[in-house]
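As a warm-up, study this chain.
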Amino acid sequence: MPTSLSPSEISELTRKLNYGTWRFQKGWTPLNIVDAEGCFIVDGAGKRYLDFSAQLMCVNLGHKNSAVISAIGAQARALAYIAPGYATDVRVELSQLLLEVLPQGLNKFFFTTSGTEANEAAFKIARMFTGKSKIVSRYRSYHGSTTASIGATGDPRRWAAEPSAKGQGFVFAPEVNCYNCPIRHRYPECDIACADYLEHIVENENDVAAVIVEPIVGTNGVLVPPPEYMPRLRRICDRHGVLLIADEVMTGWGRTGKWFAFDHWNVQPDILVTAKGITSAYIPLGLCATTARIADYFEDHFFAHGHTYEAHPLTLAPAVAAIREMQRMNLVERAREMGGYLGEQLAALRAKHPSIGDVRGLGLFWAIELVKNRSTKKPFNTKADKVSGKPLLVDKIVGEMLKSGVIVNSWISHFVIAPPLIIEKNEIDLGIQAFDRALTIADEQVEE
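Now compare it with the structure written out below.
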């Protein structure tokens, strides 16, 4: 980095020379970050910020984990790159570790460099294996930004890619949202009507290869399904000969208090996609894992997929280190313990602030949803507001929390609270206190 530049100059040159993603470019003033350690990041002026969302819900080990950093350096010195057609010891080492932690039955792996690419691989594998083309997704979902993965995305990030995104063979079903049901039912009297609706779609859409779900919806609101949903979805897929794809890019690697969210329901997907926490985001790595049934098909059928950085040695070594660090520190169990404490503190916030409509989550993966009116559940902003550039109330609150030294992610009308799994109770308290102060902005605009 050119040390002669001031933080404001670095911010301005970044804005001038680079695109800021998923935003209007005007008004973007990126914060200049120079250091990070544990649960905190540091800006160019030396101010520390609690990383209350683990960046993009991915730095599960916290910043500057020495074991992962050392693994990157050691692998670079030993073998920085080799084409994916070769066998390497680190590839075997990671693959064997994955057999220990992935949901049982997932035992054939394709390594990518992002969750987006892993989803692209999953779609192609599902279509090649089944000989069918359509994939059912859900409206409140995000699966990536490339051609097929954005086509599978249900939220407004898809809109700019249309009409081409609509030609990718994706059909959308209602999401699971027991707080504000999209089909106007109420749990548990509904008997999981949203799953029945999805089955109706499968029955009436010819040529369905797979259903893809985030087991707990991520950026679109941390929507936790009721316990009956995933087992029923598994039965629906089996009944119709449809594959079940689990997008665990965000929910994997201990985030929800299990190694993977599907473990909460003892349900086995046919394909599991993950990324982010697999290396604690220190190096880009994605994974597409399949069952032996799918793998066996390609013994005598052409596997028509691959890319230059597949199984890149520099991406695999930090994953080995990250998994071992999670095991050493018992971070899966710790996410359950600290998640219980975080949930209690968030519930106390809801009791205090009338602008909070709902608090929901599992492990260290939570959301605060803001509403203008608790009775009607009317939000302060809409999807259309987001893409039109209308100022969002959540962004104003994020800015206020930044002043208090806390960074948190937001999306339209809610916040995603997903700190590093190493977070301590006093650090959770710091984040809660910042929310407590900043939420008065929303409280003042509540409709009685």
